[in-house]
Design a protein that fits this description.
- By secondary structure, this protein is α+β, with helices and mostly antiparallel strands.
- It has a 4-stranded antiparallel beta sheet, with helices on one face. The chain has a 3-stranded mixed beta sheet with strand order 1-4-5. It has a two-stranded antiparallel sheet with strand order 8-9.
- Bound molecules: flavin-adenine dinucleotide.
- The site of flavin-adenine dinucleotide (FAD) has 21 residues, from strand 1, strand 3, helix 10 and helix 11.
- The site of flavin-adenine dinucleotide has 21 residues, from strand 1, strand 3, helix 10 and helix 11.
């Protein structure tokens, strides 16, 4: 468990807020609508150490606890959610190495990840399966000191700009249960590893989502995370709690942004001779939106606290992810109603919140799956 003082946390959050106000906010609309990768912001995020936010200091990172990390993610998402995807999936890859890697892997990769020198993400999903990860077909076959990998991964965040991915494959196609045949590698781009296309999407612009092809791609056996075959599913699932806390924090950020903009707009927009915030119909919306924001924030704080204490928190992270993502969807739609026609305009931020929010319901395990996880944990923790 990591710990930092309240003063340190305040200092970090304040400097990120200043950066958001000065260097991010003025450029978001242009980059978003051009679907342009924010190279300058990425360089600034490197300087802040965000690519090593949760990596322990002994490997060059900031070693922030999940609770502080979640606050950072919320703040950034309330300005431009896409930015958080650039360092989050990267940090989930780093978490896999940190938790399950050999000491040699940690020493080799973590300082480079922390410096943002090597950036990347998580390559799990395939064209035929996302939720049912055990059905993946990308295959690794041992050949001397290497493994040879063939297969296709899709929807991979940072797929074009990133250079290294935690790649989930099958090393045994027949073993039962299926997860015993799954293994995770650190796959760096070289011959045999190519990007076949950039995927166009509704929101989450600026960040590159790509399809990756592995064709007789050779990876040295010492890039197998933990050095032992058959542990890949465990490694992939092990990063999901932090991943879900992060997605929940992004949901809070979007929900907060929708509320913030609505409260401001409702005070200046007038109809029937008074600001719309004085109409009860608008007050009901603002009241519900603010309550959702606060409830979502508290769920994230509670899940992150449990994570930092080293407690099992799949149910808590699932609840936070489920509630905060739905809050983002509901608040962004309500913000659009409050803004009337301007909510639908590309000159305002509201339509972006509305496009970005639904992704929070899909990523890191869909909300249908979160409900199932919560229910299973409820039963397991409360035996009859
Ligand atoms: C913008 C974006 C970025 C992404 N980034 C990454 C990334 O970086 N790395 C990566 O590996 N993947 C990434 N993904 C993929 C994402 O994780 C998957 O889309 C997600 O896991 C859902 O899988 P699927 O799309 O195959 O849907 P499916 O698994 O086909 O699910 C379809 C529907 O069926 C429901 N469903 C499925 N199984 C069950 C069940 N057992 N019970 C009840 N309902 C069920 C689902 O909830 C969903 O509603 C990204 C996706 C998007 C859109």
């Amino acid at each position: 468990m990591n710990a930092i003082t309240r003063e340190d946390e305040t200092q970090i959050l304040d400097s990120i807020q200043r950066w958001l106000d000065k260097d991010v906010k003025p450029h978001v609309l242009r980059l978003e609508h051009a679907d342009e990768y924010p190279h300058e912001m990425v360089a600034q995020m490197k300087e802040f150490g965000l690519f090593g936010a949760t990596i322990p200091p002994e490997y060059g990172g900031l070693g922030l606890p999940a609770s502080t990390y979640a606050k950072i993610v919320t703040m950034i998402s309330s300005v431009w959610m896409s930015l958080t995807g650039i360092f989050n999936s990267h940090l989930i890859m780093a978490t896999a190495v940190q938790r399950y890697g050999t000491e040699a892997q940690k020493r080799h990769f973590l300082p480079r990840f922390a410096a943002g020198e090597i950036r990347g993400g998580l390559a799990l999903t395939e064209p035929d399966c996302g939720t049912d990860l055990q059905a993946i077909r990308t295959r690794a076959v041992r050949d001397g000191d290497d493994y040879v990998i063939n297969g296709t991964k899709t929807w991979i965040s940072n797929g074009i700009e990133g250079s290294c991915f935690a790649l989930l494959v099958k090393t045994d196609m027949d073993v039962q249960p299926r997860h015993r045949g799954m293994t995770m590698f650190l796959a760096e781009k070289r011959d045999g590893f190519s990007v076949s296309r950039k995927l166009e999407k509704l929101g989450y612009k600026g960040l590159d989502s790509a399809e990756l092809i592995f064709q007789d791609y050779r990876v040295p056996a010492d890039c197998l995370i933990g050095g032992e075959e058959g542990r890949g599913f465990h490694h992939a699932v092990g990063g999901l709690e932090l991943g879900r806390i992060n997605v929940a924090a992004r949901g809070v950020g979007i929900a907060n942004a929708a509320l913030r903009d609505s409260v401001a707009y409702a005070q200046v927009r007038k109809t029937m001779g008074k600001p719309i915030c004085e109409h009860q119909a608008i007050q009901l919306k603002l009241g519900d939106m603010a309550t959702r924001c606060e409830a979502a924030r508290l769920l994230v704080e509670s899940a992150a606290g449990a994570y930092d204490r080293g407690e099992r928190c799949d149910m808590e992270a699932g609840m936070a992810k489920l509630f905060a993502s739905e809050a983002a969807v509901e608040n962004s739609l309500e913000a659009m109603r409050i803004h009337g026609g301007y909510g639908y305009s590309k000159e305002f931020d509201i339509e972006r919140y509305y496009r970005d929010a639904p992704l929070m319901c899909i990523g890191e395990g869909t909300n249908e799956i979160q409900r199932i996880i919560i229910a299973k944990q409820l039963v397991a923790r409360n035996p009859a």
